[in-house]
Amino acid sequence: MRKETKKYFFTVEGETEKRYFEWLQRTINGAPIALFTVKLDCPIQKDLDQYKHEDNFKRILGKLTLDDVGQAVRRSNTIMQTNQENGYALRQHKGYKYYIENPSLSIWETVEKIMAECGLLSSSKTTRG
Q1: Cα 50 to the chain's mean position, in Å?
Q2: Are residues 75 and 117 in the same domain?
Q3: Is a pLDDT exceeding 80 seen at residue 71?
Q4: Tell me: the pLDDT tens digits for 11-38?
Q5: 3-state DSSP: the chain helix, strand, coil percent, rounded to 5?
């Protein structure tokens, strides 16, 4: 039986985001149930010394699991719901929605979709209404 490859295209702002999605691709592809391809367009190269050190970021990625990503998706969903309930203004930039007051970004919805399509989300998955 052939595995279906899902392809996703992202525009990211810098190397840190690019490294995260590359890690996600390698980790999902290590799971026996799905193949995942990501194409990244990285238009703005940020200076990592100003924002995040590459070695620290890679060390943290090395400790993450897909379960950690699933938990982060659920926490992000909760934050977005709480922000909405508190009446905070929902903003939008480049197709992603976010709140300024309690920082959260709707990128979790895309990660949730990828994990669901790859069969990697637990049954306790929640979806915003």
Answers
A1: 22
A2: yes
A3: yes
A4: 777 777 788 888 888 888 777 665 556 5
A5: 45, 20, 35
- What sign does the dihedral 12-18-20-22 (CA atoms) show? positive
Give yes or no: residues 58 and 6 share one domain.
yes
The identity of residue 25, as a single letter, is Q
* Cα angle 103, 117, 25; round to 5: 70
Number of domains in the chain: 2
Q: Which residue range is the domain that position 1 belongs to? A: 1-64
Same domain? For 12 and 35 the reply is yes
Summarised one tens digit per residue, pLDDT across range 99-127 is 888 777 788 888 898 888 888 876 444 44
Q: Are residues 1 and 58 in the same domain?
A: yes
Q: Coil, strand or helix: which one is 10? A: strand
Model confidence pLDDT, tens digit, residues 45-60: 455 454 467 777 777 7
Do 34 and 121 meet the contact criterion of CB atoms below 8 Å apart?
no
Residues 6+ away with beta carbon under 8 Å from 51:
14, 16
